[in-house]
Design goal:
The protein is α/β, with parallel strands linked by helices. It has a domain at 18-57 and 66-92 and 227-295 and 429-491: FAD/NAD(P)-binding domain. The chain is built from 16 helices and 16 strands. The protein has helices at 26-38, 118-124, 129-141, 143-150, 161-171, 175-182, 186-196, 208-221, 232-244, 273-280, 286-293, 331-342, 357-360, 387-397, 413-419, 472-491; strands at 18-22, 41-45, 57-58, 67-68, 95-96, 100-104, 112-114, 226-227, 248-250, 266-269, 300-308, 322-327, 352-355, 370-378, 405-411, 456-458. Strand 1 (18-22), helix 1 (26-38) and strand 2 (41-45) form a beta-alpha-beta unit. It is globular.
Amino acid sequence: MSGSPYSVAHDPLVAGRTASVVGSGPNGLSAAVALARAGVRVTVYEAGPEPGGATRSAAVLGPGTTVDLGSAVHPFGVASPFLRTLDLSRHGLEWVQPDIPVGHPLDDGPAAVQYRSLARTAADLGPDGSAWWRLYAPLVGAWEETVAAFLGPMLRPPRHPVALARLSIRGALPAQAIARALFRTERARALFAGTSAHAVLPLDRPLTAAFGVLFGAAAHATGWPVARGGSDAIAAALVAELESYGGRVVTGAEITDLAQVRPADVVLLDLGPHAVADVAGAELPAAVVRGLRGWRYGTGVHKVDYLLDGPVPWNDARLGRAGTVHLGGSLMQIAAAERDVHAGRHPGRPFVLVAQQSAIDVSRAPTGQQVLYAYAHTPAGSTVAVGDRVDAQIERFAPGFRDRVIGRVESSPADLERWNANLVGGDVIGGSMGGAQLLLRPRATLRPYSLGAPGLFMCSASTPPGGGVHGMNGYHAARAALAHLRRGARSTRAPAPTVHIPTRKDSP
């Protein structure tokens, strides 16, 4: 995106300085790319065998299958103001868009369907079409400003104050209240509830409507795509971009002490707050360590991946064209399930997100078969096997589904954390978005990326703006690190030579 304010140019003031980035998730890699483009020499350290963090894929369902191990659908990857400044397509990244970004089946009657087209969606929602249009049209019409406002640090003067105000007015209330106030039909209410549930909070909490508004607007503006060939294509493209600027990634490098990544002029940590305190706590002010230790992680997810012998037999055939399907029934059923999860209970009918990547990307499964990705919201760190409840929720809206399953792999919250230590208790968004943590991430400070010690920064999903594969946390942290390097360069610059100008007093 030529001329974007999110572009990073080569800067002679920082050229040749060094940076270490710990963690190679999308934020760590985005931070590394931003630093490298400015001319900093960057090394990224990754504990796992491959880069990407939770943005990885593997053939866990057998030969010829591609299963996204963590992130699957990327509404803010394609919309990211920073990622859009990078030509990642030259490194093989291709976004695949479904015609129907989001579907939401109900027990009775047709499903609620959100098409890419705002007008088509409004027409399909019938009596609620005009309300849907009024809610989303202003945001879609100013989408670049809207997404930039949402994906920026919230406690700084906004770059797009009008867009932020527009989003805040619509999103400040609880999703449950907004859905009931704006819409008359259960179809529209349920569709809004499903997108709002991406807040991973009870829908009667303030600000949960913001998620429904923003995720819904994204579906119309830039879509909810998947990465062709698997989500690891995103990480691979970022690694290739980094290497094109001379950066490098070291895998199999578990960092437990900052001495392992030094000497470096700046160190950026793509780690959760508790892990940052473990690794860097000895160098941080006591108040910073207390803030990091006090971080609250959110609820978890229980993931189930399926290999099917054909398409899902949805009760509404249009859902076969949807990239994402939200399962939970009505607004009030979803709200009740989310309340249970946050109270530490396991709902009999949990909210389930289903991604149908291979329905739009045939490379994900052998011919005639489909890979299906699903997870249910569950209490943090749950050890209860709820995979059968995920099966039942899909069967509820797709009778005969179980008969199509020829392969199946479950991953509990504990399994997810063992695979990726940043997914604490199965939390996939980097910490609860409830209460003050929506704005004060990762602690109460106006400098969220700085760790209060010279040259130390944090860039994980626990910093603003939060979870998602968009790289903006890394971009903002890199900007903070570059500002630090420039200040150092200016302070150490040699003083200009003194020039003596003769005066009359100097005359013989």
